[in-house]
Amino acid sequence: MFELVHGTLDHFREALEYALAIPAFSVRLRLACLWPILIGLETLLLLVNNDDWLDPDKVSKIPRSNVYRVMAYSVPLVSYVVIALFSWYHMRRGVAQSTAR
Fold first, then answer.
1. φ and ψ of 54, to 5 deg
2. Over the stretch 32-68, which tens digit does the pLDDT of each residue have?
3. Angle at the Cα of 44 (from 87 to 59), degrees rounded to 5?
4. How many domains are there within the chain?
5. From CA 33, how far away is CA 22, in angstroms rounded?
6. What is the pTM of this model?
7. What is the mean pLDDT of the chain?
8. Interacting residues of 67 by C-beta distance below 8 A, sequence separation 6+
């Protein structure tokens, strides 16, 4: 699974590059691209930390409150490329550390 996770991280990186290529004044379009990336990264982090990921009773799904949190903190920061990249690298590092165990 960890090999697939690293491939997925590469896809998320490419998606982030695409989202950040959208002009900063197109806030709603940029957010529409960034939200699935950020939510997907948090879900991926839950998945790699779930030792019973094949068990259907142990679902790797972020709670709705986390979705709202991602949406809330990303709105004022959507125009700042540096902050988006920092958030990406922070989440990626968390996933990478979890896969290294």
1. -85, -15
2. 998 999 899 888 888 888 888 778 788 888 999 999 9
3. 135
4. 1
5. 9
6. 0.76
7. 82
8. 39
- Token readout for 52 is 């019973």
Answer yes or no: are the C-beta atoms of 41 and 51 closer than 8 Å. Answer: no
Q: Which domain holds residue 38?
A: 2-99
d(CA 48, CA 91): 12
DSSP readout, the chain?
-HHHHHHHHHHHHHHHHHHHHS-TT-HHHHHHHHHHHHHHHHHHHHHHH-TTTT-TTS-----HHHHHHHHHHHTTTTT-HHHHHHHHHHHHHHHHHHHT-
